[in-house]
Amino acid sequence: MTTVASASGAAHLSPEEAVRRIAQARELVLSEVHKVIIGQDEMIEQMLICIFARGHCLTIGVPGLAKTLTVSTLAQALQLKFSRIQFTPDLMPSDITGTEIIDQDPSTGKRSFRFVKGPVFANIVLADEINRTPPKTQAALLQAMQEYEVTSAGVTYPLEQPFFVMATQNPIEQEGTYPLPEAQLDRFMLSINVSYPTRAEEREIVTATTQTVRRDIHPVLTGKDILWIQQLVRQVPASQHMIDYAVDLVRATRPKEPPSPDFVKKWLAWGAGPRAAQYLILGAKARAILHGRYAVTAEDIRHMAYPVLRHRIFTNFNADAEGVDVDQIIEKLLETVPEPSYGEPVTPRPRVERGPARPGPAPTGGVASPPASAAPAAPPPGPGAATPAPAGPPAARPQPVPVSPPGVGPTPPPAVPSPVAPPGVAGPGSPPAVPSPMAPPPGPAPVSPPAAPPVYGQPTWVPPAAPVAPPPAPGGSAGPISPPGAPVAPPPAGGPARPMPVSPPPASPPPGPTPPPKR
């Protein structure tokens, strides 16, 4: 006998090893069952899902499809105690649960009541043709299926775990039957429809059952293994996305709910309850772990929708008149209800390609001129001034607007960049600007003006056409005067730039602070 995990070593298994062993045990169980049962893979897998999810199943099929034989063979492969109850119209509840009899002690002659357990005290109970017994006998299974206990004469007896009820029904003959009420149908986790075998399977059935060969069933799992698998199934993660999908499917079956489709309101008289969503998730978890996966997928939920919802939704007269059955409604429901989505779709932004900045001439010191978009109006060039070089075409990318120098107001950007007069020098015909006092530099190096923001594309400054006067010697006089209209070179790329002392023009020299001597 092959077991999944021992009682001591089951707790020390990794999740990967546990899932691998369960998937391997599934293959072994199927191989043992298929020694007797030919075909019917879907029915056997759904029965295993029901067992591992701790539920009960209702099997519906015509006579001769091996429903009873499959359940008994499965009990042998799982090494569980099996009992069969043939439901008949004269069956009483005490015939299922057990009864008290008068027992007499032969030595003392004293009489007492003794409880004799019925066939429900087993691990797998086969309720064969459950719809042929009266409702009071059918109701005797309710406490056992839900509470896993039996009460008789005021005494409650617990049932041995694991415990499963597998009932069968014949859909053809309905005379003398008692259809299960909706409350008891809802206790069954799955409703399994057994179909006819294929031609190849039926030929193999005839060949195997008309010979004297008998194959023995070897146990694969034990009751402790099944209890451990049941606990592991409930630990399989199911995301909120999958839970919402199961809830949306169940709520869409209710014709009186607002989100239900129009065909549901037309064909269904009653929908599924909350227990359907619970069994959808549990069945999807058991199916995922049987197939060697670690989480629930939407395909698992869609696969379990048929056996879970088949006996929980009820058609009305319109569906019966149009020949629409429950499976067709479930199929259309899966096509209509989408998987839920969360968040907003992310729209990709177009990527802007930035060209490399053009290198300019080597800096020669001086004061940086602001870009042309915010350059103040320059006075006309004086006599002898060099004509500035024409600027290149304007850049296609909009230029950032820097801060204007103090004391000079911004003007609209001209079509062609104009040279900038040095700070503190006023052009002819304009009032002299009031100079702003500058604080002496805190350190040995003079304070550098703020650097202009980087501009991509065409440079906004113009190369100087005339040489720039060198700084004066310490204690000496100012050097030659630069023309008022001559442009000034930009500051070097790194390090602070020293302010260049400029001598006033001979026309009207404005008062200004004397620049600090060079150190």
Plain-language structure description:
Strand 3 and strand 4 (111-117) form a beta hairpin. It contains 15 helices and eleven strands. A five-stranded parallel sheet has the order 2-5-8-1-9. The protein has 519 residues and is of the alpha/beta class. It is globular.
Q: Beta fraction of the residues?
A: 5-15%
The string of secondary-structure elements, in order, is HHEHEHEEEHHEEEHEHHHHEHHEHH
* Helical fraction: 25-40%
* 3D shape: globular
Radius of gyration, CA atoms, in whole angstroms: 46 Å
Mean residue pLDDT = 75
Number of strands: 11
Q: Based on helices, strands and strand pairing, what is the structural class?
A: alpha/beta
**Spatial ordering of strands, largest sheet:** 2-5-8-1-9
User: In angstroms, what separates the terminal alpha carbons?
Assistant: 98 Å
How can the largest sheet be summarized? 5 strands, parallel
Q: In terms of per-residue confidence, which ranges show pLDDT below 50 for 5 or more consecutive residues? A: 363-396, 400-411, 416-430, 454-462, 474-486
- What is the overall number of helices? 15
Helices, strands, pairings?
Layout: H1 15-33, H2 41-52, E1 57-60, H3 67-77, E2 82-86, H4 94-97, E3 98-104, E4 111-117, E5 124-128, H5 135-138, H6 142-147, E6 149-152, E7 155-158, E8 164-169, H7 182-185, E9 190-193, H8 199-209, H9 223-233, H10 240-251, H11 262-267, E10 268-270, H12 274-290, H13 298-309, E11 314-315, H14 317-322, H15 326-336
Parallel strand pairs: 1-8, 1-9, 2-5, 5-8
Antiparallel strand pairs: 3-4, 6-7, 10-11
Helix pairs in contact: 2-12, 10-12, 10-13, 12-13, 13-15
